[in-house]
Amino acid sequence: MIRRSFFGYLAAKLPYETVQSGLPDPTDTGLPGVVTLQVQIRANQKSLVDKKKTVLKKGVEVQRGAIYGLFDEEAKELISPVSGVVTAVETRTGNYGRLFALIHIDTTEEGEADTSFSQALAENETSGETLAILSLLPELGDLIHTRQKDIHTVILSAMEEDLFINVNQYALVARKDDFIRGAKYIAKVVDHAKVVLALPSYLKGEAGDMGIETASIKNLYPSGNKRLLAKAVTGKAVSADKSLHEEGILFFNAEAVVLLGKALRTGTLPMETLISVRLKSRKTRMVSSRVGTPISHIFETLGETLEEKDHLIMGGPLTGTSVYNHTFPVYGDTDAIICHGQENMPRLSDTFCINCGKCVRLCPAHMPVNLLVRALENGRYEEAVEKYDLDACVECGLCSFICVAKMPLFQRIMLARHTLAESKKSAEKGGA
Ligand code: SF4
Ligand code: SF4
Questions:
Q1: Which atom of ligand 1 is found nearest the CA of 395?
Q2: Which residues of the chain fall below pLDDT 50?
Q3: Closest Cα to residue 185, out of 282, 256, 284?
Q4: Looking at the domain 117-266, which fold is it?
């Protein structure tokens, strides 16, 4: 297996969105009539959903801020962002064959929020139970690992994961008190590790009074990428075949740290997410939405009319994925939604690589993308790993962006990775 460092690539000159031009409050998209929660399930759980053998099923009442398990009443799997009644539970096959249970809820008037979190917080704010509940908040899943002694670095990131997005920068600047509260809590729980705030260099003045070590990062894509940030902060490249967590690094976006701070301040579980929304006019707006809100509700609130053949993308322009249905819900980690009118639709093609080398020069993982793509096109995934360093990809999407033949390189890489992961799982099961 080849291993390359991240040095020596031709840095892209793609600046991230900033909050330099002001901080207008995001539009609150309010309480939609329907929300849909999504839980990833295993293949053998599909029949349980199909046979309606779930705890959450049609007719069950849910309460805002209460915690539920899908198959086991005692399990802590999801927080309801609304009060209401479950109208249906069904399965959906997502990208690359992943299976999900969708829980549709008709919302009702907002009553009192469930109090189990405030009770746990009052008893002991850093107990295992409190941490387990907080780790169900959007993008705070890694909180559950904070007690592990092999964690040496925690990165709080005010960088963005794609272009057009400025939610983490906004969260850091506009909700600074909650950010500091959340950051101090993390530092307290993980007192054996270094906590570093990575932020775009133009915002470094914001961190002056926080008492947190900072790393000032160039505001050019893809420097907000988690693996590249981990290298910038620790000075060491993360092994291509290991997760950040396996390397002793935990990662929290500034927006998630703000939610944590808000939960600690209010004693409730805020199931909302900030989203940069790119309209057909190419103007960007920011909204604050409940997890599970249908995309159509967000565009309706912003006065944008969706039409047949508009192209919707969840995520940013380089790494987002197309959505085929405007009722699709937003997740806790949704930080952008893009709507292209037909006239602005990005084009992909099915033609061949002309070996121009642009992707190789731009790839931050310094991979031979032009050779890799030949193996991927022919389904030679093992060869792609062994000879062309597939594992080293940091999933930035720059190769697709630059490809003169408009080949869907990033999508092919993601498909290959997913297929290999599934084969590995099946092999482990077979050998067990
Ligand atoms: S997505 Fe493409 S450009 Fe980015 S690291 Fe992977 S191969 Fe390189
Ligand atoms: S940019 Fe596209 S056409 Fe050029 S070498 Fe890479 S894959 Fe081939």
A1: 1
A2: 1-9
A3: 256
A4: Rossmann fold (3.40.50)
User: What residue ranges do the domains of the chain occupy?
Assistant: 32-114, 117-266, 271-344, 358-431
- The dihedrals phi and psi of 149, each to the nearest 5 degrees, come to -70, -20
Q: What atom in ligand 1 is closest to the CA of residue 359? A: 3
b/e burial code for range 184-211 (CB count within 10 A of at least 16 → b): bbbbebbeebebbbbbbeebeebbeebe
Minimum-distance ligand 1 atom for the alpha carbon of 366: 8
pLDDT in tens, 90-127: 999 887 778 999 999 999 987 788 999 999 999 999 99
- What was the pLDDT predicted at 262? 98
Give the closest residue (by CA) to ligand 1 atom 7.
393
Residue 362 phi/psi, 5-degree rounding, is -95, -20
In contact, 227 and 244? CB cutoff 8 Å: yes
| Structural contact between residues 97 and 422, judged by C-beta atoms closer than 8 angstroms | yes
Contact 173, 199 (CB under 8 A): no
Helix (H) or strand (E) holding 38: strand 34-41
> What is the average pLDDT value for the chain, to the nearest integer?
91
Spatial contact of 409 and 359, defined as CB atoms under 8 Å apart: yes
Whose Cα sits closest to atom 1 in ligand 2? 403
Cβ atoms of residues 182 and 260 within 8 Å: yes
Ligand 1: nearest atom to the Cα of 400: 2
Q: Are 356 and 404 in contact (CB under 8 A)?
A: yes
pLDDT at 4: 47
Q: Which of 424, 419, 376, 417 is nearest to 393 (CA)?
A: 417
Q: Nearest-CA neighbor of 101 among 93, 109, 112, 111?
A: 93
pTM summary value = 0.91
pLDDT tens-digit map of 280-315: 998 999 999 999 999 999 999 999 999 988 999 999
Instruction: Kindly state if the Cβ of 156 falls inside 6 Å of ligand 1.
Output: no
Alpha-carbon gap, residue 426 to 423, rounded angstroms:
5
- CA 277 – CA 21 distance, rounded (Å): 17
The set of protein residues with a Cβ atom below 6 angstroms from ligand 2 is 353-359, 369-370, 373, 402-405, 407, 409
Gap between the Cα atoms of 132 and 67, Å rounded: 11
Nearest-CA residue for atom 2 of ligand 2: 403
Name which of 105, 104, 94, 106 is nearest 41 in CA terms: 94
Ligand 1 centroid, distance to 276 Cα (angstroms)? 24
Kindly report the CATH class assigned to 271-344: alpha beta
